[in-house]
Amino acid sequence: MLLRFPISKIAITSDGSQAFLQLILADEDRDATRFLWYKTEYTSDGNLCIADEIVTYRFTRFPFGLTSSPFLLSASLRELATMYKQTYPNATKHIENNTYMDDFVIGTSTDTEAITLYREMLQLTSHISLPLAKWTTNSKALQSVWKQENVPFREITQVLGVKWDTDKDVFQIDVQAKIVEASKEPVTKRLLLKLMSKFYDPLGLLVPVTVIVKILFQDTWLSGIKWDELLPPAVAQQ
């Protein structure tokens, strides 16, 4: 999905609000989600009162932490796409190919297509009462539509963990801040490993930078340097 994301001229991202809670748990499966909690009831003046009695409750919607919930959410969205493929051809195509869990990462070629796709997505997901939120796009025309309709949207967001600045239309990875933070610690083999793990870079955009750290880390192993031993000045300078 991230590899396809930059290909489109116009990109749109969104996610389903409380997506798991929109899925109804079959009655015969609800006993498997029982849990104990204090009995609660409202007093005559409308205040919530928590009693000492422990009672058994059951989930009627899919809990977020259930092992099968992610799969069932994905399966439900794909079933939705299958059911309405003829009615919403563009939206269903993106749900099938450009959805990760409840994150939608979709793209179009023109502003007109973007606005049409946005409305299709709203109509399609309304069939399962799934509200879409956290909208983001680099299309100024679609942003204008959102402003007119009072739809909240963000100019900077995370696309599957990677920061996207929609105004400049670029991915951002804050390298300098992490290097400055690391420079405050003694330069050791442990610090090199710590520094390598700080960069989330699924697209490999930072490989020209991170490969240098990896080479230095490999050299420390070949030199027999211990984890908390200060690196030689020449290596530390690099």
Automatic annotation (TrEMBL):
Query: What is the superkingdom listed in this entry's lineage?
Result: Eukaryota
Residues annotated as domain Reverse transcriptase: 1-158
Q: Which Gene3D superfamilies match?
A: 3.30.70.270, HIV Type 1 Reverse Transcriptase, subunit A, domain 1
Instruction: Output the InterPro entries linked to this UniProt entry.
Output: DNA/RNA_pol_sf (IPR043502), Retrotrans_Pao (IPR008042), Rev_trsase/Diguanyl_cyclase (IPR043128), RT_dom (IPR000477)
For biological process, the GO terms are: DNA biosynthetic process
Recorded protein name is Integrase catalytic domain-containing protein
